[in-house]
TrEMBL record:
Residues 99-180 form the Core-binding (CB) domain. One of its GO terms (biological process) is DNA recombination. Keywords: DNA integration, DNA recombination, DNA-binding. It comes from Duganella fentianensis. InterPro entries: CB, DNA_brk_join_enz, Integrase-like_cat_sf, Integrase_catalytic, Integrase_DNA-bd_sf, Integrase_DNA_bind_dom, Integrase_recombinase_N, Phage_int_M. GO terms for molecular function: DNA binding. This is Integrase arm-type DNA-binding domain-containing protein. The keyword DNA-binding applies. Residues 203-391 form the Tyr recombinase domain.
């Protein structure tokens, strides 16, 4: 006798009954256990008795279970084993899932993470997750067209993130080239997007470059009473004049007190070349004081919330704002322009030494890029002279 919706809904597991199988006919039955109710289908294939699962009630209703039974009987009529067919479809489904942009991008991220700083890895993952995965993430990467990528990038442009849109386009291209390498795509479709995005607007970071105003800034920094990590970062920003991201992601293993050097690996640098920052005596004093607080961990400037991450990218700028220096007056990046201007125009240091210390691309007469130790003794002297000059400004001795 065929089952009814009412019976299926009300029937319960009976511990005193030898069988809790309730037949619906044509090989299908409801198996009731203490854990739940399960649809099953018994059949014979090549002379062997087999059982296929049709799903669990109530997720799979009686009508749906009967539909699945019909589909399996049709497969049997065609000489196909329903269980083998189901396994094959599951394999196909998993393979298709592995070929989506989302899956390939995450695979590429994992394979290449050793090439990036931890903070950069987090940022790249966030860019992809927020800006590409919602729009092309579930698409098979081999079927994605240039227009699909462009539509996602145009959403970024619409909210004013033009520079980030260009960065995400580059990341997308790297994912596609990885897919080509592993045989899951024919080509990098982002190559067709050349010129399709709005040009990146030129950014000029506000900076204080007049010595009298620099003196006021330095006195404000040394009088700042914020968190000790932030205070140390503020004091070191003018001494190092590295990019803000390079400063906040500094690791103790990169600091060599014996050699008075901070050696930044190329993976953290914009130009992808290793970089050496000679440490003036003033910088060493600040770092040693900070080492007593954070030296047990990885980062020189750990996050206040967790030592597993470095300081937020907004910390130094937020400190400047709290001291009354608006974004139109001074920025964390502005310490580079400050050093470049005063070292050249006031202290009359060699321009090539300044450019080396700014980690700009500097080449010799034959067009070859200098290595990280180029002119290091001269740069060491320049950095100490710079630190002494900043002290003289702050103390009003110049």
């Amino acid at each position: 006798m065929a089952l009814t919706d009412t019976f299926v809904r009300q029937v319960k597991h009976n511990c005193d009954t030898a069988s809790n199988k309730h037949a619906d006919g044509q090989g299908m039955y409801l198996l009731v256990s203490a854990a739940g109710k399960y649809w099953r289908f018994d059949y014979r294939f090549n002379g062997k008795r087999k059982t296929a699962a049709l799903g669990k009630y109530p997720e799979v209703s009686l009508a749906k279970a009967r539909q699945r039974r019909l589909e399996m009987r049709e497969l049997l009529a065609e000489g196909i084993d329903p269980s083998a067919d189901k396994r094959e479809k599951m394999r196909d489904s998993k393979e298709k899932e592995r070929q989506t942009f989302n899956a390939i991008a995450r695979e590429w991220l994992e394979k290449t993470k050793a090439q990036r700083a931890e903070t950069t890895q987090i940022k790249v993952n966030d860019w992809l997750t927020r800006n590409l995965f919602p729009y092309i993430g579930t698409m098979p990467i081999s079927q994605i067209k240039p227009r699909d990528v462009l539509l996602a990038l145009e959403r970024m442009e619409a909210r004013g993130a033009i520079e980030s849109a260009h960065r995400v386009k580059q990341l997308c291209g790297q994912v596609f080239r990885y897919a080509v390498a592993v045989g899951l795509a024919e080509r990098d479709v982002t190559a067709d997007l050349r010129g399709a995005l709005a040009a990146i607007p030129r950014t000029h970071y506000a900076a204080i470059t007049e010595p009298i105003e620099v003196a006021k800034l330095l006195r404000a920094i040394h009088g700042y009473k914020g968190h000790p990590y932030a205070t140390a970062a503020l004091k070191l920003s003018p001494l190092f004049f590295v990019r803000p991201g390079e400063l906040r992601s500094a690791e103790w293993q990169e600091i060599d007190f014996a050699a008075s050097e901070w050696r930044i690996p190329g993976s953290k640098m914009k130009m992808k070349n290793d970089h050496v920052v000679p440490l003036a005596t003033q910088a060493i004093a600040i770092l040693k004081s900070l080492h007593a607080m954070t030296g047990h961990g990885k980062y020189v400037f750990p996050s206040i919330r967790t030592e597993d991450r470095c300081m937020s990218e907004n910390t130094v700028n937020a400190c400047l704002r709290s001291m009354g220096f608006g974004k139109e007056v001074m920025t964390a990046h502005g310490f580079r322009a400050m050093a470049r201007t005063i070292l050249d125009e006031v202290l009359e240091e060699r321009v090539d030494l300044i450019e080396h210390q700014l980690a700009h691309a500097v080449k010799d007469a034959n067009g070859r890029a200098y290595n990280r130790t180029a002119h290091l003794p001269a740069r060491r002297t320049m950095m100490q002279r710079w630190a002494d000059y900043l002290d003289s400004l702050r103390l009003g001795n110049s």
